[in-house]
Specification:
The protein is of the alpha+beta class. About 55% of the residues lie in helices and about 20% in strands. The protein contains 11 helices and 12 strands. It has a 5-stranded antiparallel β-sheet with strand order 2-1-5-4-3, sandwiched between helices. A 5-stranded mixed β-sheet has the order 7-8-6-11-12, with helices on both faces. Helix 11 links the parallel strand 11 and strand 12. The protein is rod-shaped, with a radius of gyration of 45 Å.
Length: about 400
């Protein structure tokens, strides 16, 4: 615009003849100046436009990146929502089971499904008597170094808090020697305690052969599953103990009379179906009252406990030892005929006799009398079988005690 103003001034001056040039020459100069001014203006406009376009492209790139990040965030949020929605199914699945074994396996199954992670899943429960960990359920665990947990599980048990390890070879909390064998199986893990009534009742753990396989979100989700599992497992333990108390004698730990009679009826039917045999041994402690009179009232309890331990160590899997009443015990021997049962009864009698029990620093010899009966040889009804075994027990006592009678 400055050039145009100058040109106009010159033109006016020239018209009145100040410089003596021809009108044609002056017009050419003015046209040139106007063209130059126009060119400069156009270049300026183009430069401004290019700058604006460049800024607009930058803004578009930033906006595009923001959209991508937001889409990733939406996807991540949807994934989280789906995972947390699955917890409803976990609650429903766990609440429909009472068996501890079923619950343990279900906890593992639901954890793997909900987190969607490969690798191993391990569930340890605390042995309340030994205060140690026991492997109760697992998934993908083809190689397990110890079923009592490793340094990572014991860290969770000791600190009572969750653990995430992105790379076990670089975590300063765990000495190199402790992870030397473990790194051959896994390199990253998450673990969380199962806490009920302010006590750690177990450890839930997932690990993977690769590093950086778990996130804080994974750990939070496992925490929630562990909290749910702790409640259900504690209920199952209570239920199991209640059932155990209902069928076991509080003093000896042997099953009670009612449970024995139910099982006896079942085993007689099973043996008849298979054309097999079962035998029962009715056993009574000889001169039981004398132990209380000589060594005190608690001595009788000690004798019963000793006898229960001895018999349980001698019977086979599937056999049943029960406290039938007072000092009388009964043993169910599955799959044995009368001759085999009589041999086992005599072996039990001799073993008990040959292992004195120390009562108040005195070695007390325990003797028993045993009556043997067999089904189907002697009887096929439970009450008849019991009656015959009891009669033979009485015969053993009348013949001098400390003996076995099978006829």
């Amino acid at each position: 615009m400055l050039f145009l103003s100058v040109a106009i001034v010159i033109w006016q001056d020239l018209k009145i003849g100040l410089y003596g040039y021809s009108a044609f020459t002056m017009e050419f100069m003015i046209t040139t100046l106007i063209g130059y001014a126009f060119l400069r203006q156009r270049n300026r406009v183009e430069a401004d436009s290019a700058l604006k376009i460049e800024r607009l492209e930058e803004d578009m790139n930033i906006l595009s990146n923001d959209i991508k990040e937001k889409n990733l965030g939406v996807h991540s949020l949807e994934e989280k929502l789906n995972r947390y929605a699955m917890l409803k199914g976990v609650i429903e699945s766990l609440s429909t089971h009472l068996s501890l074994d079923d619950i343990n396996n279900l906890v593992i199954e639901e954890s793997v499904k909900t987190l969607g992670k490969s690798g191993r899943a391990l569930l340890f429960l605390v042995d309340t008597e030994k205060q140690d960990l026991m492997l109760s359920a697992s998934s993908g665990a083809s190689r397990i170094k110890t079923k009592k947990g490793d340094t990572f599980d014991h860290w969770v048990l000791r600190h009572r808090k969750s653990l995430i390890v992105e790379d076990i070879t670089r975590d300063f909390r765990f000495p190199v020697d402790d992870v030397e064998e473990s790194k051959k199986i896994f390199k990253s893990l998450i673990a969380t305690p199962l806490i009920s009534e302010n006590k750690v009742i177990g450890i839930m753990r997932m690990d993977n052969p690769d590093v950086f396989m778990f996130t804080q979100d994974d750990l939070r989700l496992l925490d929630i599953i562990s909290d749910l599992a702790a409640v259900v497992i504690q209920n199952a333990l209570f239920y199991s103990r209640t059932q155990e108390l209902a069928i076991k004698d509080g003093l000896t730990g042997l099953v009670v009379r009612r449970y024995f009679l139910d099982r006896l009826e079942e085993e007689i039917k099973r043996a008849a179906h298979r054309k097999g045999a079962i035998s029962i041994l009715m056993m009574d402690i000889d001169h039981f009252k004398e132990y209380n009179d000589k060594f005190g009232h608690t001595s009788g309890d000690l004798v019963l406990k000793y006898l229960a331990r001895t018999l349980m160590s001698m019977v086979k899997e599937g056999d049943i030892v029960a406290r039938y009443g007072g000092e009388e015990l009964v043993i169910l021997l599955c799959g044995r005929n009368k001759k085999e049962a009589a041999i086992e009864a005599e072996e039990m009698r001799r073993t008990i006799q040959d292992k004195p029990l120390t009562l108040r620093r005195h070695a007390a010899t325990i003797t028993v009398s045993i009556g043997v009966a067999n089904s189907p040889e002697d009887a096929i009804l439970p009450e008849e079988l019991i009656k015959i075994a009891d009669e033979r027990l009485y015969k053993a006592k009348t013949k001098g005690r400390n003996r076995t009678c099978s006829v």
